[in-house]
Amino acid sequence: MKRITTLATLVVAFLTLLALPPTSSNSGGEKAIVPVALAQSGDGQDNPFARARAKTCSVGTLKGDYGYLMKGTNLNWLQLPPGPIAIIGVASYDGAGNVFTTATSIMNGFIVPVNQKGTYTVNEDCTGEIIFPLGVYSLAITSDGREIRGNQGYPPGVVIPPGAGWVLEGFAKKIAPEPHNDNPFERAKSFSCTPGVIAGSYATTWNGTMLSSPTFPTGPMTGVSTFNFGQDLAFTSKGKMSFNGMIMPVTHSGTFALQDNCLATVTVNSAGDRVFGVFVDGGNEFFAMELPPAGAPNIPGVGAVVYTISKRTR
Q1: Measured CA distances, 173 to 57, 64, 65, 127, 282 (Å)
Q2: How far, in Å, CA of 94 to CA of 100, rounded?
Q3: Taking burial as the number of CB atoms within 10 A of a residue's CB, which of 45, 165, 187, 247 is the most buried?
Q4: Going by DSSP bridges, is the β-strand pair 303-312/285-291 parallel, antiparallel, or unpaired?
Q5: pTM of the full predicted structure?
């Protein structure tokens, strides 16, 4: 009975302590008592959400190479083929307001290279703009500058009525892996892709439109599969796709070529179709889209506009 009474006294004393208001540190170096409710509210200085809210961005937040995927629809802009669009590329930011892109787009089946030079600004709230020859790209920066989300617009002063122009969204991620510590020498190391870096299996989701195909039904498509990249440059994939509502198993094998900037091209042996993509986050993710076989006629309305976002599983 005495033990129970002592335990109850300790519990009451502890709860009373939690209810006390915070006290300031005295000359003896005693730490302030912060009530649990205050810590949970997010007002405490050690709260990670409070620290995140205090962060600001600048033009220097974007520096380095980013792989990106853009997708959407061209309604009637710049005399380009109307229809679905997918774009894969690399954007290089210099940290001082200049950006250069190397990309390939497929517009309703028509392949168009998109290499641009632009300037960019970043606001303290981590929003910003890139001014490209093709238009102004509005962006929002997340993850301490490692990720970018955006929306493609038009050149300054150009107003497009509903039903014209294009509707394009984009997602970008830094190509280099995230540093595991604050060592400035580690952060300064350059990163390049090699087969050994990206080798492994990736979980893949597909979305897009089949325009015309001798094998698959035309119309909207989606699917899930695995990509396997080998150090010997071999490639295999296996999955299930829905082509305009029809479920079909799909398997492929082939080879891939990898560039130092992490752009990659997979060539499928069975049909010569290609998958063009970019590895990001140190080879942990892969943004890609399908391209027709090399040498095939570049004709709008033929082939497919499908894209994928893949993430490493092992």
Answers
A1: 16, 10, 9, 16, 10
A2: 9
A3: 165
A4: antiparallel
A5: 0.81
Q: Tokens in use for 84?
A: 């679905």
Tokens coding 5? 């009474």
Q: Walk along the chain (314 residues) in steps of 10 and give the mean pLDDT of each run.
A: 41 39 44 44 54 79 97 91 96 97 96 94 97 94 96 92 93 90 58 92 97 90 97 97 96 95 92 93 96 91 95 95
Phi, psi of 50 (to 5 degrees): -65, -40
Distance CA 167, CA 160 (A): 11
Reported as a single tens digit per residue, the pLDDT across 188-246 is 467 889 999 999 999 999 999 999 888 889 999 999 999 999 999 999 999 999 999 99
Three-state SS across the chain? CHHHHHHHHHHHHHHHHHHCCCCCCCCCCCCCCCCHHHHHHCCCCCCHHHHHHHCCCCHHHCEEEEEEEEEEEEEECCCCCCEEEEEEEEEEEECCCEEEEEEEEEECCEEEECCEEEEEEECCCCEEEEEECCEEEEEEEEHHHCEEEEEECCCCCCCCCCCCEEEEEEEEEECCCCCCCCCHHHHHCCCCCCHHHHCEEEEEEEEEEEEECCCCCCEEEEEEEEEEECCCCEEEEEEEEEECCEEEEEEEEEEEEECCCCEEEEEECCCCCEEEEEEEHHHCEEEEEEECCCCCCCCCCCEEEEEEEEEECC
Per-residue pLDDT tens over the stretch 259-277: 999 999 999 987 788 999 9
Length of the chain: 314
Question: From the centroid of its chain, how far is CA 220?
Answer: 23
Q: Please, what are the domains in the chain?
A: 59-174 (2.40.128), 195-312 (2.40.128.20)
Picking from 265, 297, 293, 300, the residue whose alpha carbon sits closest to that of residue 279 is 265
